[in-house]
Automatic annotation (TrEMBL):
CDD domains: MFS. This is MFS transporter. PANTHER family: GLUCOSE-6-PHOSPHATE EXCHANGER SLC37A4 (PTHR43826:SF3). Pfam families: MFS_1. The keyword Membrane applies. Keywords: Membrane, Transmembrane, Transmembrane helix. Residues 14-427 form the Major facilitator superfamily (MFS) profile domain. It comes from Thalassotalea psychrophila. The keyword Transmembrane applies. It is found in: Endomembrane system. It is a multi-pass membrane protein.
Length: 430
């Protein structure tokens, strides 16, 4: 295989990465995101219980991020990603049996390892190398935007499958129909996860991932770094910690999107299928937001763009907490703000890993840096769902959601502070 990869092959590679990068999280996250009211009824769970289950996933994921980064710097992304997808799909066989809350907790703990340890840092590293030095914003915008398109597309198909299976139950489904619907969705996502594993195995080159960049002449050979020395080098850099906090704030905002379907049914009075349809349709904004943000970031600097997006997101959450629904004017504003929030969250999420190149972090330490940033940045997998579930359960209805939105306002404002400080530090380096 030549060192230069054709444009068509590069497109196939990035499509495979994008598809696999979203589908691996479909079983642990999509079912709850798009079908949360139905999931809660079928598994007889409260928001607090489901939040604690996600918290266990987060704990295992945190333990997996750090070693996963070092592993990604040493082994083939093709093998690591394919194996992760297959082991994740195996969990779907148990999920579709509708296990008890204890069994569900163990399943999510298992997924915390299979979706992260061998997959996450490999995906980020391959994407950075695929994008080269000049188009990091576009590369990560395509990755996250494409993942959003995959998420929305498969969710729409799942909603359509349920609608066709239960055409007379568009308003309220009984528990038997809800159980059949959830089993259909789980089986669908499990099959897609297996398909993603096959796709990665046959499309990602067997050669080292450095050869995925179209301009490989700019990549020079480096001796194998000592793993411990690399970790210490990364930990000593303040810019890595600032990036980690930016990811943390952005990921809290992203996790909040899981509750918009429940907000629609609980506060706005929308039925379960329409709620799932509304969230899946809003998810189509993700590719638009992420790719557009990537283009803008490549022109204006990533840190600066993220700073302004956090300002707008803070205002958006504050507006949610102040509005009262069920009047014509307020409902219209809420719906517009709903779309704005999705756009801003997707835009920030689409480009925050492009900061790796902007801050001039060594490419040879990408996996290690991603591991460290992810350990901090994705801690919301541990604490956000348990906190949000308790807030909503302790103050049912609009009051609980208003408290949640005020919490998110404060987190987003903190994200702006971290992004501003990082952008200032990058400017001083130029």
């Amino acid at each position: 295989m030549s060192h230069e990869i054709s444009l068509s092959r590069r497109l196939v590679i990035i499509f495979s990465i994008v598809f696999a990068g979203e589908i691996i999280f479909s079983l642990p996250f999509h079912v709850a995101r798009f079908f949360r009211p139905t999931l809660l009824d079928v598994f007889s769970l409260t928001n607090t219980q489901l939040g604690d289950i996600f918290g266990l996933y987060g704990i295992m994921a945190m333990l997996a991020y750090f070693p996963g980064g070092a592993i990604a710097d040493r082994f083939s992304g093709r093998r690591l990603m394919s194996f992760s997808l297959l082991t994740t799909a195996l969990g779907g066989i148990y999920f579709v049996q509708i296990p008890s809350p204890t069994g569900l907790a163990l399943l999510f703990a298992y997924w915390g390892v299979t979706t992260i340890l061998l997959f996450w840092a490999s995906m980020i590293k391959v994407t950075r190398q695929w994008g080269g030095k000049a188009t990091q914003g576009k590369a990560f915008g395509i990755l996250d935007g494409g993942r959003g398109l995959v998420a929305a597309g498969v969710a729409s198909i799942a909603v359509l499958m349920i609608t066709m299976a239960f055409p007379t139950s568009s308003v309220v489904m009984n528990i038997n129909e809800q159980t059949s619907a959830i089993k259909t969705v789980i089986s669908f996502y499990s099959l897609l996860t297996v398909l993603a594993a096959v796709l990665i195995w046959f499309t990602i080159p067997k050669v080292k991932t450095e050869n995925l960049a179209i301009n490989t002449n700019s990549i020079t050979a480096h001796k194998q770094r000592n793993a411990i020395a690399g970790i210490i080098e990364v930990l000593k850099q303040p810019k890595v910690w600032l990036q980690a906090f930016i990811v943390l704030a952005a990921y809290c905002a992203y996790k909040s999107l899981d509750y918009f379907g429940l907000y629609a049914t609980t506060v706005l009075g929308i039925n379960e299928l329409d709620s799932a349809r509304m969230v899946s349709n809003a998810s189509y904004l993700r590719p638009i937001a992420a790719i557009t943000a990537g283009i803008i970031a490549d022109k204006l600097r990533v840190g600066r763009v993220i700073s302004w997006f956090f300002v707008l997101l803070s205002v958006s959450y504050l507006l949610f907490s102040l509005l009262l629904p069920n009047t014509a004017s307020s409902n219209l504003i809420i719906e517009a703000n709903f779309l704005l929030t999705f756009l801003l969250v997707f835009a920030i999420r689409g480009i925050y890993f492009a900061l790796l190149e902007e801050t001039k972090l060594s490419g040879q330490l990408t996996g290690t840096a991603v591991g460290i940033i992810s350990v901090v940045g994705f801690t919301p997998d541990i604490f956000f769902a348990p906190i949000a579930g308790r807030i909503i359960d302790s103050a049912p209805g609009i009051d609980g959601f208003n408290q949640l939105f005020m919490l998110l306002f404060g987190i987003s404002a903190s994200g702006f502070t971290a992004a501003y400080l990082l952008a200032k530090r990058v400017k001083e380096q130029v």
